[in-house]
Amino acid sequence: MNAKTGGAVTLQEQKKFGGRPDECMIYELFLYHLIDNDNDLKEIYDSCKKGTLMCGLCKKRATELMEKLLIDLQEKRKTAAGKMKEYLK
User: Fold this and answer.
1) DSSP class of 9
2) pLDDT tens, residue order, the chain (89 aa)
3) Who's near 19: CB < 8 A, 6+ residues apart?
């Protein structure tokens, strides 16, 4: 929850002036690793710029998506480990 974001210093400033998703590490995670849907990315970007989406909500969503990604990766590794013996014969 301490990740650098493009948000304003205070919640009031964020709502008034909006955020800067182009400078946000969380948005970069969404953009390059966690969200495939361009419409979802545009909605996040626009909501941030307008000040209607707060950084804490993005961080929470990123945490949930990262957890899902890692669990999926773990399952794929287990499956691949079982198949490695077949390939090494």
Assistant:
1) S
2) 777 687 777 888 888 888 999 999 999 999 999 999 999 999 999 999 999 999 999 999 999 999 999 999 999 998 888 787 777 76
3) 5, 6, 7, 8, 48, 49, 51, 53, 55
Quick one: which of 87, 88, 11 has its CA closest to 55? 11
Cβ pair 41, 35 in contact under 8 A? yes
The whole-angstrom separation of Cα 79 and Cα 73 is 10
Joined tokens for residue 52? 């209607």
Q: How far apart are CA 30 and CA 77, in angstroms?
A: 23
> The pTM is what?
0.80
Where are the alpha helices (H) located in the chain, listed in sequence order? 11-17, 25-29, 38-50, 55-88
